[in-house]
Fold Site-specific integrase.
Amino acid sequence: MSRPPLQIGTWGKISRDEVSPGVWRAMARFRDFDGVTRKVEARAAATSKNDKGGKAERLLIAALTDRAMPAGEDITSDTRITKLGLIWWAEFEDADRAINTRTRYRDILENYVSPGVGGLRIREATVSTLDRFLKTMRIKHGNGTAKQCKTVLSGMLGLAARHGALDGNPLRDVATIPINHKEVRALTVTEVGALRAGLRQWEADKKQAGRYPTTDILDVIDIMLATGARIGEALALRWKDVDLKSEKPTVTVNGTIVYVPKKGLTIQEHPKSANSRQKYFLPSFAVEMLLRRQIGQLEANPWDVVFPSAVGSLRDPNNFRRQWRSASLDLGFQWVTPHTFRKTVGTLLEASSGVAVASAQLGHSSENVTRKHYIQKTHEAPDNTSLLEAFGN
């Protein structure tokens, strides 16, 4: 009868023999992670007459132990979720992730996952246990937070499965977390005209009264309407990204404003997605606005941004949102957020040129994303009256 195969990552009986006077060899069969069983050996000079290969065996065991843990971390079914989270985070952080993504996932891991299930061992992370945890997250913190907890846990337990601590990822079988997407609402061309005219007068009144330090909200909105850029991308626009001398003036979105914990605001040198890094041809109203700002700029700011804060620093997207909220309440457009302008661009382009053009302008990787999240539905069936008239004859 043949001997049973070794388990992956384990070794068999260690043998010793003296290969030359005073030099001993320790050898064992080790089953590697590719499933192949190989002989592994270590040699060492005897430390004394009574050594008989003891040093060689100790060296062999150390080598076999290292070989059994190729990732540098020992993850077993008895590893606690808290430790698994630290190992997973080290891998996740080492990858090329956006700053905001790293910040958000770190918050989810530290403030929700670890306190909620961190004391469990990996073998205790069953479908039913994880399902109860995620349902508790939904009740206490909402569907969005629960979905992010599921994403982080799925990454962690996927790592555990790759290390052989689980047969599969139990997150695949937990209940689906519903996300209620609001129906897309965009501004019409008429509404955009009314908003811009009203905001222009609102800023003039505030400037004349001397009660409002920021009177360029409309300029930022105009660049979003001209390109479809996100608010963080618009505020990260630098003069080196602007070309007003070409026959067709352009701006290039190369980054976005992000907040780094303990460091403050900075420009992330790439937009939210790789597809968002692109050059935009500018309509005349945006060209005129940029020329006016370029000519009227009294002094350069350290970041060379087109839309600095009142003190010349990077402008916080959250501060801009608060400024816009104040204006929108006075103008009767309180339902409009900075992201509404991106949806407005998508809706206009889809209606006139099709979803492919809208998707390309917004830098989406999929037309489905554009169709689902950025185009307002008309709720109007096509005019088929000439065909349907046949039923009345």
